[in-house]
Every structure is written in structure tokens, then in C-alpha cells.
Design a protein that fits this description.
This protein is mainly α. Helices cover about 70% and strands about 5% of the residues. The strands form 3 sheets. It has a two-stranded antiparallel ribbon. A two-stranded antiparallel ribbon has the order 3-4. A two-stranded antiparallel ribbon has the order 5-6. The longest helix is centred in the middle third of the chain and has 38 residues, at about 205-240.
Length: about 500
């Protein structure tokens, strides 16, 4: 009996030593140890073992309240001694507190032991049965040995059935190739719910072994896809900064700048607890989606006239049809007064912001208007008429999906918003003819919009072909109708620019 108590006290002393170092690091100073629980006192507590154990448990429980799972995650490094991790696991399983925090800490420690075996590759060996019948994984056998002196919970049949869900989940994780797909899958919430359903059975060696294997697979895939997505975002931000731009996109109504992206510390986010930082990961995913929808940054932009000839030869994206119409409208002997300037990244970024505001204002009107009148949207200078498909796109609740219907809806929204912006700028241009400094600003905006219309028209063609390949004829027809409307607006804009002065 005394030997068992001494062994238990030795485990708690190891946990206390680890906790003391962790708290010292977090607070920048040593935390005083209660009288009778320091190393010297513990060596001479032979005759007071029960009382010492009680006081040690109380002290560790107090420290537990200050130590979060994220702190524990950062403290467990590849250099951490396996004996310390095993002592922590024994402590958490013995405590078996019915709280998410205790379960998360147990989860972290068990997964740490799985990722850092004493002998490299020892968990990859084939399992065998202790009774000759039930196959056990090597890691589960190791956990049984570690927790041999601990009263582990039994495993009811309904929880055995829950455990069988983890293998399909591991396969699902291994098939993911994109960070957005991982976040959109909802797998983090599904697995967390599974762990909660396991209740006290979570502390069973078989459960810990199964969950740890899943955690290792998920963690490796999550880190890989997150690093890839963040790298692409930072590369985009760097390219935009080199061209003089500052605003990448808007996420949840907040503009994301180059400085914001440069300040993102991927390693710090990965070291934090997934549950508490999940919203941050979601925002990174949303930013990635926004950037994926935008055309690639062009480091040199041609004038409309030069773009027209080049685009027919190699597909350059710089208003080919608009420039061709401008050339036809221009009299051979009389050059146009207005010479379109080169388009800058700042102009594109500013126009993207205006387009988002137009999209939102149209979306709000369509969603709240009487169904009979939602296709006629009142704008500042005119009424914008939508096709039924365009009105449906603006009221769709599935725009964040990765699906054909979402691609079609986003395409229609983009085409309509650009058309509306062109109409607005043309009206502003007409009303400011006598103010040269003002109409020049509106004329420049029209040039940018014509360029964006050309790029969006090409992208819409790809979306229409994708719809046609899946026999979605109605969706393809809707795209073609919207493209035609935008082309008419662009042609009108080009003719106006050709004669402006």
C-alpha cells in the first residue's frame, strides 16, 4: 500500500515540476511552492503520505486552473522527456474531470506520446492480441502499460460504435487538398462533438489510442494546407505591395491590408488551441476564397488599343472588345481628346471595393423587396433591370459553396455589378463635362471598369462552358444573357470615351 502511495506521489511530483517550469515561463518569475510540497519535504514525507497526496492534488488542481490547453501545447516540445508526458497522462486520467479542458489536455498529451515514440516507428508495427483474439495497436498496448496502475473506465458498446467513425474520418482528411475545403467540411466540429459524446470513456486506453492516431493525421494535414494557403496569401500581398497597392480584400466587412497579412504569424496560430482560434482560421479561409475569385495580378497593363490586338494573338486580359469598338468609333483624321492612361493596381483595388458595395446594396434590395418588383433595382441615376436568374443569384444563400450553382451565381453577380458601375460612371461623366478635373476622374474609372469587364467576360465564358458540360443549359444561357448586357454597356462606354472632351 505504501509503495503504491509513494509511486503516486512520484508521479504528482513530476507533474508539479513540469507545471512549475511552465508557470515560471508564463509569468516571468518563479511561483512559490506551498510548504511541505517542495522537493526536500517530499523526500521526507514517508509517514505522512496520505495527507501529502491530498495537499499535492489540491495544489495541482489550483495550477490546472491557470494552465490552458494552448499553454500545454506550446510547452510539450520534441525535447520533452517521455516520462514527464507519461506522468501528465496518468494524472489527467486519474483526475478524469468531466470538463472539456481536462479532456483537451489529456487529448494533447496522448497525441504527443503518439507523435514522439521512445523508439522511432514503434507504433507502425502490426497489432496483436493480448488474449490471442482481439487485435490491439502497439500504441494502445503502450497506453495500457502506462495506465496499468490507474482505474480506467469501461468501454460500453455504444462508445465502441462511436470509435468506428474515426477511421472514415481519417480517410476523409487524407483526401483533402485545399485549406478552404478542410474548413468548409466542418470536420473539426464533428470530431469535437464525437469526443464529447464519448464522455468518461474518453480516458480508456483504446479510445485514447484511436483519437491520437486521428489527431496526428489531421494535425499534419491541417498544418500542411494552412501553410500552403497562408503562403499564397502572403505572396499575393507581396506582389500587390510591390505594385504600390495596399488593400487585398474585405473579409466580414473589414478591409484586409498588406500590413495585416504580413503580421499573420502562422506558427503562433498553429500552436494555439484549434477550438479557440477556429474563427481566425475561418477568416484566413474567407480571405483565400476572396483572392481566389479575383483575377491574377498583372504587373504591366496595356492601353485598350494595344490590348485589342494582343489579346487576339495570345489571350491577354486587357479590354480587347472595348478597344476595338473605340477604334471603330474614332474618326481617322481626328484623334480623340481623351487618351486612356495605364491602369494602376491602386485603381483596381479601389474599384474592387466599390463593386463590393454595389453588390451588397443590390443584394439587400433583392432580398427584402416584394418578389413582384425585385428585378427592378433603383440606383442613383437609373433603374437597374435584372433577369430572373440574376435576381436569384443575388438572393442565393449558397454563394460560399464550392459547386457549379455557386460559381454561376457569383459569375452573374460580378457581371451585373460591373454593368451597374459602368452605368453610374457614365452618368457622372455626362454631368461633369464642364469640370475637366472631375470628368477626368470618372473617365479613368470607366477605363478601369472596361478592363475589368473584359476579364470578367472571359471568366464568365469558362463558367458557361462548365455549365454546358454538365448539361446545365439554363445556367449557361443565363450567363450568356448577362455577358451580352455587359458587352452592350462596355461598347457604349467605349464610344463615350472616344468622343469625350
Amino acid at each position: 500500500m505504501a509503495e503504491d502511495l509513494r509511486f503516486e506521489l512520484a508521479i504528482l511530483a513530476t507533474v508539479q515540476g513540469f507545471y512549475q517550469k511552465l508557470m515560471t515561463s508564463a509569468l516571468g518569475g518563479e511561483v512559490p511552492v506551498p510548504s511541505g510540497l517542495d522537493e526536500d519535504a517530499l523526500r521526507h514525507s514517508e509517514h505522512e503520505l496520505p495527507g501529502t497526496l491530498t495537499r499535492m492534488y489540491r495544489w495541482l488542481h489550483l495550477l490546472d486552473m491557470a494552465i490552458t490547453p494552448a499553454m500545454l501545447r506550446r510547452a510539450l516540445t520534441p525535447e520533452t522527456d517521455s516520462e514527464v508526458a507519461e506522468a501528465l497522462l496518468r494524472y489527467f486520467v486519474r483526475r478524469r474531470e468531466a470538463s472539456d479542458v481536462n479532456r483537451d489536455k489529456t487529448d494533447l498529451v496522448a497525441t504527443f506520446l503518439y507523435r514522439h515514440p521512445r523508439v522511432p516507428g514503434q507504433w507502425e508495427q502490426s497489432g496483436y492480441g493480448l488474449d490471442g483474439a482481439l487485435p490491439l495497436s502497439p500504441f494502445e498496448i503502450a497506453l495500457i502499460e502506462i495506465l496499468a496502475d490507474t482505474d480506467v473506465p469501461s468501454l460500453p458498446e455504444e462508445h465502441v460504435q462511436l470509435l468506428r467513425r474515426f477511421d472514415p474520418l481519417r480517410e476523409e482528411v487524407s483526401r483533402l487538398r485545399d485549406f478552404n475545403a478542410l474548413i468548409d467540411s466542418g470536420i473539426i466540429a464533428r470530431v469535437r462533438e464525437l469526443k464529447q459524446w464519448l464522455d468518461s470513456s474518453f480516458y480508456h486506453p483504446g479510445v485514447l489510442a484511436t483519437v491520437s492516431a486521428y489527431n496526428a493525421t489531421f494535425g499534419a494535414k491541417f498544418d500542411e494546407l494552412f501553410a500552403k494557403a497562408l503562403g499564397e496569401i502572403k505572396s499575393f500581398g507581396q506582389a500587390l505591395e510591390e505594385m504600390g497597392g495596399t488593400i487585398l480584400s474585405t473579409v466580414d466587412g473589414v478591409e484586409v491590408t498588406v500590413e495585416h497579412v504580413a503580421a499573420i504569424e502562422g506558427n503562433q496560430m498553429l500552436q494555439a488551441d484549434y477550438g479557440t482560434t477556429l474563427e481566425k482560421f475561418r477568416r484566413v479561409s474567407k480571405l483565400k476564397k476572396e483572392l481566389d475569385r479575383r483575377p491574377p495580378i498583372r504587373r504591366s497593363l496595356l492601353t485598350p488599343a494595344a490590348s485589342a490586338s494582343k489579346s487576339h494573338g495570345n489571350g491577354s486580359a486587357a479590354a480587347p472588345k472595348a478597344a476595338k469598338a473605340a477604334a471603330a468609333a474614332k474618326a481617322p483624321a481626328t484623334p480623340a481628346v481623351f487618351q486612356p492612361p495605364a491602369i494602376t493596381p491602386q485603381q483596381i483595388a479601389a474599384e474592387e471595393g466599390k463593386l463590393r458595395r454595389v453588390e451588397e446594396s443590390i443584394r439587400v434590395f433583392v432580398r427584402v423587396a416584394d418578389p413582384k418588383y425585385r428585378q427592378v433595382v433603383p440606383m442613383r441615376f437609373f433603374n437597374l433591370t435584372l433577369t430572373p436568374a440574376e435576381a436569384d443569384a443575388y438572393s442565393a444563400a449558397y454563394l460560399e459553396e464550392k459547386s457549379l450553382r455557386a460559381d454561376v451565381a457569383r459569375t452573374l453577380i460580378r457581371l451585373v455589378s460591373i454593368s451597374a458601375r459602368i452605368s453610374t460612371e457614365l452618368e457622372e461623366l455626362k454631368r461633369s463635362q464642364k469640370m475637366s478635373s472631375v470628368w477626368k476622374l470618372h473617365a479613368d474609372a470607366v477605363v478601369v471598369l472596361i478592363d475589368m469587364a473584359s476579364t470578367s467576360t472571359e471568366e464568365a465564358g469558362s463558367a458557361a462552358r462548365a455549365a454546358e458540360s454538365t448539361a446545365a443549359g439554363a445556367e449557361a444561357k443565363a450567363i450568356h444573357e448577362s455577358v451580352q448586357k455587359l458587352r452592350l454597356r462596355s461598347d457604349a462606354a467605349v464610344k463615350t470615351l472616344a468622343n469625350v472632351g
